[in-house]
Each structure stands twice: as C-alpha cells, then as structure tokens.
Amino acid sequence: MTHARTERAALCDLLDDLGPGAPTLCEGWATQDLAAHLVLRERRLDAAPGIALPLLAGHTAAVQERLTLRHSYPELVGLVRNGPPRWTPYGLVPALDAVVNTVELFVHHEDVRRAQPGWEPRELPEDLQETFWRRLRGGARFFMRGAPVGVVLRRPDGARTAGRMAEPAVVVTGEPAELLLFAFGRQEHARVTFQGDDQTVARLRQARFGL
C-alpha cells in the first residue's frame, strides 16, 4: 500500500471516530467541513481552483457548502475513503496520487490529529520522511513566499534548504514531517525549534503562509 493510501485510510478512520463536529487546525472548519473539502478537491474539478485562487474562492466555498447539505457526514467520509474517481486526473494518471496526495492527506490528517487534546507526533517511516524532505527542497520557497522574514529549514542531521531568502532570517529545525507542517502554515502545531532573535522568530510564528 502506498503512503497516500495509508494516510487516506488513517484519516478516514479518525474522521469516523470523531464525528462531524470535532475541531481541526483549519480555521473555521470542523471535521465535516474538512471532509467536504477533500471530496471537492477530488470530485469537483470545476471548484478546486478556488482552493488556491482567491478570485475563485467564492464559488469553491459555495460548492463545499452544498456538499455538506447534499451528503451526510458518513457519506462524505465514505467518498474520501473511496478515493478519486477513475475519470479524474488522479484516476487517469495513478502516479499523481502518490505525488500530490501523500502530502495533502498527511497534512490534513495532522490537522485533525493535532486539534485534539493529548496528541503527539507519530513515528513515520524513513522513506516517508525522505519524501517530505524532497518536497520541501523543491517547494519550500513557494510555500513560504509570504513569510515576513528569511527562513532556513534544517533537519536534525544538519541538511538545510531555504524557505525564503531574506534578512533577518530564522533557522527552523525539525524532522521533515514537522518542517513540512511548518511550511504549510501550521507553525504553532509543528514540533520544531528556532534559531534567531526573539522578535524575528515571533514574526515568523505569527505569519500566515502556506497553501
């Protein structure tokens, strides 16, 4: 089983356990909203661009709301669990599931896990950590383009990649999974450490960036 499928199954199991009204790290969204978001991005390709493009966000929000009215919570989770239909890009090009959904589903799994009391980071396979590091090396500057200060992401073994080239800068250290969550805007819930002056670190921790 691929890491994308493993994360999908684990996320859906957690959504089933928590029910529709549990909190998530996605501002303003409970678990029902997050499930509808995942259905939308895989099954409503007409509305998916609004996830990233503000000009289209209104249409996306309206479609997501209709999904929550049309489908019960168990139906929404079932659609997520079943994965994207065969006629979508994910179905037509199976490799896209591993390329795109491994990160997407991991981040949203943690959005649910880390919004609950008593969470701790999971022990992840080394190859999954390496997948996240490759994604950071290729995309950190894009994810963190809105950071108000310079950012260097550093693994515990000393390997580094730039999140944003600017001064003053902060060195953020953590396992690749934690750095990925940080780069996706989950700063307060990523287990990382900071090297930099207090004011610069505070600005970075309070900034809005990611997808």
UniProtKB/TrEMBL annotation:
Domain of life where this protein originates: Bacteria
SUPFAM superfamilies the UniProt entry points to: DinB/YfiT-like putative metalloenzymes
Matches recorded under NCBIfam families: maleylpyruvate isomerase family mycothiol-dependent enzyme (TIGR03083), TIGR03085 family metal-binding protein (TIGR03085)
Protein known as: TIGR03085 family protein
